[in-house]
Amino acid sequence: MHAWPASEVPALPGQGRDLRIHDTATGGLVTLQPGPVARIYVCGITPYDATHMGHAATYNAFDLVQRVWLDTKRQVHYVQNVTDVDDPLLERAERDGVDWVALAEKETALFREDMTALRMLPPREYIGAVEAIPGIVPLVERLRDLGAAYELEGDVYFSVESDPHFGSVSHLDAAAMRLLSAERGGDPDRPGKKNPVDPMLWMAAREGEPSWDGASLGPGRPGWHIECVAIALDHLGMGFDVQGGGSDLAFPHHEMGASHAQVLTGEFPMAKAYVHAGMVALHGEKMSKSKGNLVFVSQVRRDGVDPAAIRLALLAHHYRADWEWTDQVLQDAVDRLTHWRAAVSRPDGPSADALVEEIRDALSHDLDAPAALAAVDRWAERQESEGGTDTGAPGLVTRAVDALLGVAL
User: Fold this and answer.
1) Which domains does the chain have, with CATH numbers?
2) Are 318 and 363 in contact (CB under 8 A)?
3) Spatial CA neighbour of 395 closest among 383, 385, 386
């Protein structure tokens, strides 16, 4: 599966800072000091409805992570999956009377278009669950051989008790885990499971649903968590720098994935930091497909809004914050974009060297994009009220905003 084209990231004078970022597993800020190649895995979409503002906010956060690393003169090895076979996708295809493969391809193509328009840097590997199945089956077989998996009516489950580190990502108690498992794709009430929150590794073939050869597992399809584990281990290995996604993925998805990988390899932890973006709401409720309260990037673009303004609307909120999408949020972003473009359109202006360092400082401290925007606002206000004689300043601001914030002026 192919990703989307990369926009050029301008080079800036000097060098960026190492990133301090909030790690869900430790509950505090950690300083990331990758090697020459920083490694990041971000969980991708289930393509039955792409791309709402909640998606965009999440991918914007991890785009900033990449940009901070690139500014430190590191390379970035970014991997993202597409869950192109799963119950929600099959249910939507049946509801709409369309082929599930065609639906997945259509929505994935739209997602690529949205990511391109928003100038999100693409992953080096963009892997669908279906194409990963040949690598998933041996992992499930190995977990079974290690005694970490068991069969129940043809389905294969992972035993969470096989991992002594289980719970170290989310730190939830058993009751909270059971509740979230039921809400987020698990089946805690199924009789016969060793632990109610044990996740499925391999679903035996169901009549009328797609299935693949599972070798000794029999025909079927993979569970959700083992999909990402297989892709991450194959392309990044253990101990990669950041596992990223929305805050609703901390449990069960990232918790379960970490346990799968740790049992498979005997190493801990799967990732050095588990980083989670907040949720975006509309009319007081989290945007979700089940509620139908979605604002789609593609629709806002079709309404004539500059993608740079959409990106500024996302950047105006700290990545870990839960916030609400409103018409005013978008209008404020449009106004900010207009102001910034007017400021950099002049032939000279106030020196921007300090501004570049302010943006770097803000982003290196837990991706504080709102502080970075405020710094650019102050420079633009000075340009409007005082002007300046530095002929290189407008160009430097333009390059810095592009390189570090992904906004094209």
Assistant:
1) 24-277 (3.40.50.620), 306-405 (1.20.120.640)
2) no
3) 383
| pLDDT per residue as tens, the chain (409 positions) | 999 999 999 999 999 999 999 999 999 999 999 999 999 999 999 999 879 999 999 999 999 999 999 999 999 999 999 999 999 999 999 999 999 999 999 999 999 999 999 999 999 999 999 999 999 999 999 999 999 999 999 999 999 999 999 999 999 999 999 999 999 999 999 999 999 999 999 999 999 999 999 999 999 999 999 999 999 999 999 999 999 999 999 999 999 999 999 999 999 999 999 999 999 999 888 777 667 789 999 999 999 999 999 999 999 999 999 999 999 999 999 999 999 999 999 999 999 999 999 999 999 999 999 999 999 999 999 999 999 999 999 999 999 999 999 999 9
Length of the chain counted residue by residue: 409
For the CA atoms of 377, 383, 386, 388, the dihedral, rounded to the nearest 10 degrees, stands at 140
Model's pTM, two decimal places? Answer: 0.96
The H or E element spanning position 309 is helix 307-315
d(CA 64, CA 40): 12
Largest CA distance in the chain: 76
DSSP string, 168-190: TTT---HHHHHHHHHHTT--TT-
Contact call for residues 346 and 395 (beta carbons, < 8 A): no
Query: In this structure, are residues 406 and 63 in contact, taking their beta carbons and an 8 Å threshold?
Result: yes
DSSP 45-78: --TTS--BHHHHHHHHHHHHHHHHHHHTT-EEEE
- What is d(CA 340, CA 223) in angstroms, rounded to the nearest whole number? 47
Distance CA 243, CA 245 (A): 7
Sign of torsion over alpha carbons 197, 160, 128, 218: negative
